[in-house]
Amino acid sequence: MTDPASTRVLLVDGSQLITEGLRISLHRTHCFRVVGIAHTVADAARSLRGTPVDLVVTDFDVPGAGPLRTVRDTAQHRPGARVVVLSNADSPSWARAALDAGAVAYLLKTSPVAELLPLIVAAVRGAPATIDARVGSLARLPARMPPPASLGRLSAREFDVLAEMAKGLDNARIAQRLFISNDTVKTHVKAILRKLGARDRAHAVAMVLSESSDSFVTT
């Protein structure tokens, strides 16, 4: 996949403003063919099942499920497609999780369009796995690096809960975002603390962020 003009793109974000802005910018600047727009995980999954795509540009945490669900759905339904994750969070652990889930780039939504679009084009053309230079002050990761040991001990749902904890959300808000009960969140939090050997929620988040940052290598 080397020609942006022949690249079929699915845009996935809870904000209509963001998806429309990306659609216009991608078409005007590089003539990408945006063949689908989705605002929820369910919409994205339907698009992936029904529409051939070469590139998925998705938010880290799309409404309707836990973080990176659309990245995993792409790997299942369109294994040849490349995935670029856009996020508001300059979190090394989230960047690592995105690439480990199968994304080829983790970019920040706060980037100027003039900087963002060339990185998306580079991803289409097969550039090495990339994260925004402002994330942990690092620019690149080798593709498919092993996850940090701490994250490797967590289940997929426990990681979802940990990602929400890192945003500073309380149990009630986490339950609402992940569509689970408060009691289930409490059970996951206890398991996270036990598996990580953390004193409390803040300690658990700090441990994973520190370990993820130490595992990055620059080029």
Reading off the top of the CATH hierarchy, the class of the largest domain is best stated as Alpha Beta
- CATH T-level topology of the largest domain: Rossmann fold
What would the principal axes of the Cα set say about the shape? globular
Our estimate of the beta-strand percent is: 5-15%
CATH architecture of the largest domain: 3-Layer(aba) Sandwich
Query: How many separate helices?
Result: 10
Structural class estimated from helices and strands: alpha/beta
Would you summarize the structure shown here?
Keywords: DNA-binding, Phosphoprotein, Transcription, Transcription regulation. The protein is α/β, with parallel strands linked by helices.
What does the model show?
Helix 7 (156-166) packs across helix 10 (201-215). Residues 137-147 and 212-219 have low confidence and may be disordered. The chain has a six-stranded parallel beta sheet with strand order 2-1-3-4-5-6, with helices on both faces. The protein is α/β, with parallel strands linked by helices. The chain folds into two domains: 7-131, Rossmann fold; 156-211, Arc Repressor Mutant, subunit A (Orthogonal Bundle). It has helices at residues 16-30, 41-50, 69-77, 92-101, 113-124, 149-152, 156-166, 171-178, 182-196, 201-215, and strands at residues 8-12, 33-38, 55-59, 82-87, 105-108, 130-131. The chain is built from ten helices and six strands; from the N terminus they run βαβαβαβαβαβααααα. It starts with 7 loop residues before the first strand and ends with a helix.
